[in-house]
Amino acid sequence: MKIARVIVDVPTSQTNRLFDYTIPDKYQDVLTVGMRVIVPFGPRKIMGFVLDITSESKLNKLKNVQDVLDLTPVLTKELLDVGKWLAESTLCFYVSAFQAMLPQVLKAKYDKELWLLAEVEELSPQLESLFAGRGVIPYEEIQEHNVSYSAIQKAVKEGILEIHYQVNSKETKKTETYITNALEEMELEEKYATMPPQAKKQRQIIAFFLEHPGEIKQKELLHRLSTTRASLKPLLDKGVLQTIQREVYRDPYQDREYQPTTPFPLTEEQAAAIDPIHTSISNHTHETFLLHGVTGSGKTEVYLQSIQHVLDKGQEAIVLVPEIALTPQMVERFKGRFGSRVAVLHSALSKGEKFDEWRKVQRKEVQVVVGARSAIFAPFENLGIVIIDEEHESSYKQEDYPRYHARDVAIYRAKHHTCPVVLGSATPTLESYARAQKGVYTLLSLPKRMNNASMPQVERIDMREELHAGNRSMFSRDLFEKMEDRLQKGEQTVLFLNRRGYSTFVMCRDCGHVMECPHCDIALTYHRKSERLKCHYCSYEEAMPTECPSCESDSIRYFGTGTQKIEESLQQLLPEARIIRMDVDTTRRKGSHERLLTKFGNQEADILLGTQMIAKGLDFANVTLVGVLAADAMLHLPDFRSAEKTFQLLTQVSGRAGRHTLPGEVVIQSYTPEHYSIDLASQYDYEAFFLKEMKVRKMFQYPPYYFLTLITVSHGNHLYTMDVTQKMTQFLKEQLSEQSVVLGPSPSPLARIKDRYRYQTMIKYKNEPGLHKAMNRLFQLYEDQINQNDLQISVDFQPYQMM
Ligand SMILES: Nc1ncnc2c1ncn2[C@@H]1O[C@H](COP(=O)(O)OP(=O)(O)OP(=O)(O)O)[C@@H](O)[C@H]1O
Ligand SMILES: [Zn+2]
Ligand SMILES: [Zn+2]
């Protein structure tokens, strides 16, 4: 007897284990590890993943596997292992981890059909009677007609059949008609010879197939021979030719032409950087490289040539790019070099499109995947390199279950495949750079821009002085003059405002003093309702001051302006300027992001005003001025990484100006321009910033010196939420060792979301072997309240968003 061990799709702690089911005879040869099945579970039938197939079970009365959903495994053995590791290291349910690795289409219940792909000469009698002359049948008929699944599976492998998911998606075109010769060459020649001479077109068509046996798209054939369907029809009717319906991928990039590119001869620096990567690829060893290269230094070319090396070895490559930077320009660079060997995975694709791209990987039809975070789970089996571009981007961390970081998954997978990982950035995270310093990662540097182009000149403006000089607007006099100048010259400006319209810290506009927690070195969060300032790392709080504790001015207030407001006042100041605003509001619709950028690229606007989303990947020759309106907004986020994020963002934004022949200028407006992150960013001095920031992290016990774990509790009742967090904090203090610091409870910076109150507790530690155990105990303790009382407790072992 064969038994399937299954993880069922019920994400609760009681069901987070293997369940055994007997495999009925009809599935015995078909079912393998990594497939999805339907199994009876209590009164219901639910989906599950087969993790193991054995011959014995500890239980003696087992139920049967009800149905098999896949005929080829959707998760490879390696990915099943990745899923287990992911679940255990991030504390999520196994099933959630497996689901996270699959395209959406495979998660929902879609109707399935069986498609007959080619008109094979002889279908097996079984299939013949199953299809009974039809080209498409509902999947359930396999079971109804008692056809063996292994026969179906074999036909799928041979390319005769295909399982088709009915994804409802308007924009998809599913099949295309192909024409092929139905006769052998000899017969075809005979037909040609006996065809009356006046049937000119038909003779031409036959001649074509004599010269090019095999299939061709009907459209292409008609186009090539400049003829119509009317002249094809008699040949089809007489059985000389036949039609085939081929499925076409819903490829969003298919209408685009990609200029094929060839590798550049590398510069000396690039050659020096790529050499160790090539060695690792050739020697088949695992190593993690940190490629630190300034903006415009040619990192992408290093990626491209490394991938070429991997492909030459017959292996595969994954390239991760931040969602925001996954622009058509980026895709073009990979498609231009590797053409149809590239699949692209990102969230702007429809479900159907994503699924198609994923299947190209599963079927080994592509060797390169370029995608956002979840592309790290591409089901390649012969991986030769993983590249993470802009490795400092916080979007590589998933903020929902499973809370994984793509960098960790990349390294885990690369160890399995013994291949290199390349992390690239102009501003690496402190964590990665520190690891490179310790020799855990290998540091590679590209310190210069291509062609020795200079970095744009950065000017810092002190907004306190503007105020003192009587300028109450959001634009300094300098920035305003420069914008006017660009407008006159017909050059373009990019204006950058961090975040969308809201911020939470309190600052004195006279002297720039920011209210900070005396214990945590982060800005205090203003709570409007209670008129109090709170630290959300520890539980410190104080009243909102009426005058500045530093200079006694009464211009102390909370800080924040939205893009919309800025657009309005900008339009007033420069009525003739054409402005494009890009923020969450104007880019909600699919494709609008791209449309706005194209418009700006075509110089249909003078000023691009936007949030984070314009900081990356923009490469417009005519942009000669970049303005950062409020550098402080990011500097005083209630987040210990705020200085690092400020440095990264300013460096990225500055990198957008003067990338081509026209020289660029950058203006940074701030109330604290002397802050080291702003000062050093304006000098492009990463090294100095790293050293300074590391000192701060050490002093206040933050990563990379210490680890953090953030636990967030939420519930609809305020007192109850506070109470649970309080007790939980106490419980953790008792469970954990002396050296761990448990901070809290304190309100989350986003203290209420969708009517749920949120409190948090933070743990700082250097080495806490009992942490996972304590967390599991914690969940046991609150299990009933989580299941019955709608209490939510979430744990993040590597928090990036401290909200
Ligand atoms: N060896 C080379 N010879 C000539 N041109 C090159 C070479 N390598 C790269 N380039 C060109 O230099 C420009 C900058 O390179 P690239 O965009 O790869 O830099 P980057 O470091 O990835 O930049 P960023 O981090 O700002 O995105 C590109 O237009 C690229 O085509
Ligand atoms: Zn504090
Ligand atoms: Zn002051």
Helix content: 25-40%
How large is the radius of gyration? Answer: 31 Å
Low-confidence stretches: 168-173
* Structural class by helix and strand composition: alpha/beta
The CATH superfamily of the largest domain is identified as P-loop containing nucleotide triphosphate hydrolases
Span between termini: 52 Å
Query: Ligands in the structure?
Result: adenosine-5'-triphosphate, zinc ion
Helix count, per DSSP?
26
Task: Return the CATH class of the largest domain.
Answer: Alpha Beta
Shape: globular
Number of discrete domains = 6
* CATH third-level topology of the largest domain: Rossmann fold
Main beta sheet strand tally, sense and closure = 7 strands, parallel
Q: Kindly state the mean pLDDT as a whole number?
A: 87
Going by CATH, the architecture of the largest domain would be 3-Layer(aba) Sandwich
Strand order of the largest sheet: 15-16-14-17-18-13-19
Strand content: 15-25%
Care to count the β-strands?
34
Cofactor: Zn(2+)
Binding site for Zn(2+) 1: 508, 511, 548, 551
GO molecular function, one term: hydrolase activity
Protein name: Replication restart protein PriA
